[in-house]
Structures
1.
Amino acid sequence: MLTLPNILSLMRLPLAFVFLQENPFYRALAIVLAMATDGLDGFVARRYSLVNRVGTVLDPMADKFFVFFVLTVLIRENRLSFQEAGFFLCRDFSVILYGLYLAIRGRLMNYRFRAIWCGKITTVLQLSVLLGLTFELPIPSYLFGVFALLGIFALVELYQTDRSRRRSQQESGG
C-alpha cells in the first residue's frame, strides 16, 4: 500500500547509499533526512489515519536497513569496531530475542510489535552517534554501554507492554 507515510519510510533506503560518498556534508544530510523521515512517517500515519500493516513493518525495516548499511560503511572505514557496532545494535538484538520468546510461546503470529520508548530513545541516540562519527568526533566508550543498557530496558519494556496488553484483554473477556 503506497501511502505518504510509507513513501517517507522508503526514502531511507536510497539515503543509506549516500554513505558510499565520503563527503561528510552529504552523509550528515542523509542522517538528518533519515531522522526527519523517521519522525514524520509515524506522525503523518497517526494524524491522518494512514496506519496500516505494511507501514508498521516497513518503517522499522527501513530504519534497520539505513543503520546496518551505515554501520557497515563505518566498519569498513575503520571508524567503528565490530564490538562497538554490536553494542550499537543491542536494542535490535533484544527485539529479536523477544520475537524468539513469542515464537516459542506460540504467540508470535498474534503479536503486534509497536514502537516502544526505549526504541525511540535508542534510534535518536544511534543517529546522533552516526552524525558524530560522520564528522570524525570522538565518541566516548561509555556511550556504547548506554546502548547495551537501552537494549536491556527494551527487552523489559517489550515484556511489560505485552503482559499488560494480555491482562487487559483477559479482563475485557477478549
2.
Amino acid sequence: MGQRVSGVGAVEAFSVGLPWRVVMPDGEHAAASSFLRELAASDCSPSTLRSYAFDLLRWFRFLDGCFVGWERAERSDVREFVEFLRQAPNPQRLRRRPESAAPGSVNMATGKPVLSASYAARTINHQLSVLFGFYEHVCAAGLGPLVNPVPAQRGRHGGRLHAHHNPAAPFAAHRRGAYRQKSPRPVWRAIPDDAADRLFGVLRTNRDRALVSFYLSSGVRASELLGVRHCDLDAGRNTLTVVSKGSRNRETVPASVDSFVWLALYLAERPPPVADGPVWWTLRGTPRPLTYHTMRAVLNRANAALGTNWTLHDFRHTAAARMVSDPAFTLVDVQTVLRHASVTTTQIYTQPRLEDLVGKVLEHYARPAPPPTAIEPGYDDRAVRELLGLDR
C-alpha cells in the first residue's frame, strides 16, 4: 500500500500573502490555499499553517497514488489512508539519527520507549482533524464535494468535542470517532539529577551549557528559548521574556543565576553578530540563528555519547517536576511559571510514576513486620482479652 503514495507536490514558503501554500505540479492548490487563508484570518500562527499544509500534502499525494481526485474522495478512501499511516514508515523518523535499540523497545539508560518507525496515533488523529476541517470548509464554500468524507469527532450530545469545557475540571471521557486511534495516556518524563549532571558534562560548548541550563531552570519550551533576543534578557532580575507558543503573548519567566553565568561565558567567547538580534547562533561556518533542528542535533550528540534518548521537551518536564517537589511552590505557582492555560495540565506532574514507586515498594516488603500487640504485665491477660473480645 505504501507504493501508492506519489512524490508530487510540495509545501513552499511565500514572502507575500499566505506564508505557506501547497503547490501541486499544475500550480498552487486553490482549495488548500482557501482553507489556509481561513486559518490565517483566524489568527493561526505561521507554524500552524505550515503543519496543516503538510497534512494536506500528505493526503493529496496519497490520493494521487490511488488515482483519485481530492474532490471525489469517499469514506473508504479515508479508511485506506488511515490503514496506510498505521503501517507506513514515517519519513521524519528515518531522517533522525538511528538508535541502537529497536523501535518500540525501551532504552535501558532512561526507561523511555524508543519511538516507533511508523506514524504515531496522535499524528493520525491530528491528520484526520485537519482533513475534517478542510472538507468542512470546501463543502461550505462550494469548492468540493457535498458531503464531508471524514467522520466527525463529536461529544456526548452531538456537539463539538470539549465545547465550553471548564478549565478547573478534568476532561470527561468520550467515545472515539471512526478511524480515530487510541492515544496513550500522557506521561511526563523528568531527567533525574544524576542523569542531568552526566548530560551536562558531555556538552561541548558554553553555548550548549547555557541553553540546557536555561531549559532546566526556567521550563520554557525549546522553540521559545531559541527565539529570545538580547533585549529579552534581564540579568539583574534573572528573567527572560519569551513569546508563548499558544497565546503568542510576551511573558517574563525567571531563570537561575547559573544560566546567566553560562550565558556570559558564551557571549564573551562569541560576541553576537547583530547587536539586538537573536541570542543563539551557530558556531561553525557563517553565523546563522540557531534553529530547533540544530538544537535537537546538539542533544542527539549528547545522547549518542551517553546511550540515552532524552528529548528537548524532557527539559521542560524536569523543570516542572523540580518545582512541584519543592514545598515552597504551590500548584498554581508552577502553572504560572509554565504558562499552562489549565491547572489540570499542571496536575500531570503531581502523579507519581511507576519507576519512582519501585523503591517504596521494595522498602515496604523489606521492612520487618510490626510485633503483635502485647498486654501490659500489670493487667489480667484473660480479663483484658475477654473485655476486648480478642479470644472470639
